[in-house]
UniProtKB/TrEMBL annotation:
Protein name, per record: DUF559 domain-containing protein
InterPro entries to which the protein is assigned, alphabetical: DUF559, Restrct_endonuc-II-like
Domain DUF559: 168-251
Coiled-coil regions listed in the entry: none
Length: 281
């Protein structure tokens, strides 16, 4: 690409000799201090993919960035001096550009589906849908197989965050009647179980003005006959059994349903048309 930009081979060799450029491998040069993940991909002859590229694209990823995930062509070999690599040898769904070190979003999601537990993979897929990096229609037309094909069918673009995706999938396994992102009393609630049990999921943005607004809305919900359970990142990721037990106890006590006496007044509080993801048991 440097040659296409007008640099002569002589100029490039001189820049390498002076330390302005470093030759990584045939066809790949780097400037000092360049992105270490891109350097590793160039050295290996691969493409950044799976959770590594998903994280670089700003998508929700549940696993820590301890390993570098690279998509590799069949003939490539892992350099001995590079450790902590997770290599993906599967055939790409979309042909890769040999001059681009980052994998396409479709290949990234396909590798995520192969690499992660299904609920973690779904959170990343739904994050990509919400970010507009791909559409559900496109995913369903692709020749995906296995878990990826299933995720193309069930992934919900209305989940507000990866954390919400995890919660919804776990609650669906319990056979609960629930809706996601339902409009109640002027705001969306994350999950509505039955008719009046609200589960709100706090991520990193629920601070300051957002937190004040959340508290105000919680009070409005309670005053109008709803029951609110609010959980945070650590509770969902590290203490899910406690969260699940709390929700199931609330359901067992009848806090998710309205009584016949309450039904008349309750009907006017919720705009069911605003619920963007009704999920039946």
């Amino acid at each position: 690409m440097l040659v296409e930009a007008g640099f002569s081979y002589r100029t490039i060799r001189a820049m390498c000799a002076q330390g302005e450029l470093e030759r990584l491998r045939q066809g790949w040069l780097a400037v000092p201090g360049s992105d270490p993940e891109l350097r590793a991909a160039a050295l290996c002859g691969g493409h950044l993919t799976c959770v590594t590229q998903a994280r670089r694209l700003g998508l929700w990823v549940t696993v820590p960035p301890s390993e570098l995930h690279l998509a590799m062509p069949p003939h490539a070999r892992k350099p001995a001096h590079l450790s902590e690599l997770q290599l993906h040898w599967s055939r790409p769904v979309v042909t890769r550009d040999p001059r681009d070190l980052g994998d396409s979003i479709v290949n990234v999601l396909a590798n995520v589906a192969r690499c992660l537990p299904v609920e973690d993979a779904q959170a990343t897929w739904e994050s990509a849908l919400k970010a507009g990096l791909v559409t559900k229609a496109v995913l369903q037309r692709l020749p995906l197989v296995g878990v990826a094909r299933d995720l193309a069918r069930v992934a919900n673009l209305f989940a507000d965050s990866g954390l919400e995706s995890l919660v919804v999938r776990r609650l669906m396994r319990l056979g609960l009647r629930l809706r996601v992102q339902t409009w109640i009393l002027g705001h969306h609630v994350d999950v509505l179980i039955g008719d009046r049990l609200v589960v709100q999921i706090d991520g990193g943005t629920h601070v300051g003005v957002q937190r004040t607004s959340d508290i105000r809305h919680d009070a409005q919900l309670v005053l109008n006959g709803y029951h609110v359970i609010r959980v945070g990142y650590v509770q969902v990721m590290e203490h899910w059994h406690e969260v699940q037990d709390l929700i199931l106890q609330a359901v067992a006590q009848g806090l998710s349903e309205v009584t016949q006496v309450e039904a008349g007044t309750h009907a006017g509080r919720i705009n069911h048309a605003g619920g963007r993801g009704a999920i039946g048991a």
